[in-house]
């Protein structure tokens, strides 16, 4: 292949891989007050998950770890987290809410393809915290949407 043909093919490939991303419109940008209101509502629904895998199973090793999850269904007591947190094998786990209430949680689903899993808890076990669920809204996700991530710092506390 000639040098010109290689250069032309390289330019075509680069153009195929590029995409134009529009910046967010000014009127859609959230203010600091908007973020404060949103965070005050969602932080109580974010939990620290502490898990203990009693033995190595599949590709996961035995051990203890901590992670973040959030309540997606308050009435049924369902917490969403990452797939590896739910573990492929036997696991003992507990969730700690922002007010330090700790409750046991039980794995109910670990997606085989996507990076999510669910734990279940008894909603009646939360006695002292008023919290809301964070509803899932996959249709609202798109490139360029401004987000904030709320999670825990190595299991120490919940941080915005």
UniProtKB/TrEMBL annotation:
Please give the InterPro entries that the UniProt record associates with this protein.
Answer: Peptidase_S1_PA, Peptidase_S1_PA_chymotrypsin
Q: Which Gene3D superfamilies match?
A: Trypsin-like serine proteases
Domain of life from the UniProt record? Eukaryota
Q: Name one Pfam family in it.
A: Trypsin_2
The cross-references to PANTHER family, in alphabetical order and at most eight, read: PRO-APOPTOTIC SERINE PROTEASE NMA111 (PTHR46366), PROTEASE DO-LIKE 7 (PTHR46366:SF7)
What protein am I looking at? Answer: Protease Do-like 7
- Source organism per UniProt: Solanum tuberosum (Potato)
